[in-house]
Design the sequence.
């Protein structure tokens, strides 16, 4: 089983272990870490800062550079408060030019030690359900052309390839099915 949960500073120990598992922030797609002034710092305070950042980023920003979005953490089982965190998922409610060309509606990552257990595929399905609940009928999900794992997850979730732009595969997934 896999669950999406809201970022919660009460889960800081599991969050810290997850952050430490990644080889730096470069692979932490969907985490929102790029909004921080530096790399996320594992620990109680670092987690609290991270959660504050995700809350601050959720509404659209007045300059219009950031669309409204929701950050989730991926939990390994049923999402209970003691459930291990295994990844990140970010659902953008709208597409701007960059997201339409490259980023898509949903970004995600699974911590290295929890990969190849189906978490990304199940989390993406759950993210699609969240998108459907927001009334998003067609969800754009993208991945690098050489990212076999992400590509397979997207295709298992019903992704239909539109094109490949600058090495990015762009898939649309209907949430109506
Ligand atoms: C991409 C990523 C999210 C996949 O997470 P995951 O939980 O391991 O994915 P799943 O277990 O759901 O596997 C999805 C499919 O990819 C396959 N797969 C997983 N890792 C693979 C790998 N390294 N090479 C080839 N296939 C792989 C799985 O076997 C599965 O296919 P199958 O069911 O047909 O066997 C994870 O590797 C990751 O976080 N990578 C770094 C960040 C990233 O690339 N995010 C996506 C941005 S678009």
Sequence:
């Amino acid at each position: 089983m896999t669950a999406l949960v809201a970022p919660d500073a009460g889960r800081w120990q599991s969050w810290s272990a997850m952050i430490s598992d990644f080889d730096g922030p470069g692979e932490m797609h969907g985490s929102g870490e790029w909004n921080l002034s530096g790399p996320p710092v594992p620990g109680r305070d670092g987690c609290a800062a991270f959660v504050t950042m995700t809350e601050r980023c959720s509404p659209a920003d007045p300059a219009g550079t950031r669309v409204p979005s929701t950050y989730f953490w991926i939990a390994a089982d049923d999402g209970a408060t003691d459930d291990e965190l295994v990844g990140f998922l970010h659902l953008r409610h709208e597409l701007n030019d960059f997201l339409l060309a490259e980023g898509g509606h949903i970004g995600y990552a699974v911590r290295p030690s929890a990969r190849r257990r189906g978490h990304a595929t199940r989390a993406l399905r759950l993210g699609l359900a969240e998108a459907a609940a927001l009334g998003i009928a067609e969800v754009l999900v993208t991945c690098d052309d050489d990212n076999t794992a992400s590509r397979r997850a997207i295709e298992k979730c019903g992704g239909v390839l539109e094109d490949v732009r600058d090495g990015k595969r762009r898939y649309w997934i209907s949430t109506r099915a």
Notes: Residues 27, 29, 107-110, 115-121, 143, 147-150, 152-153 surround coenzyme A (CB under 6 Å). The chain has one domain: 3-174.
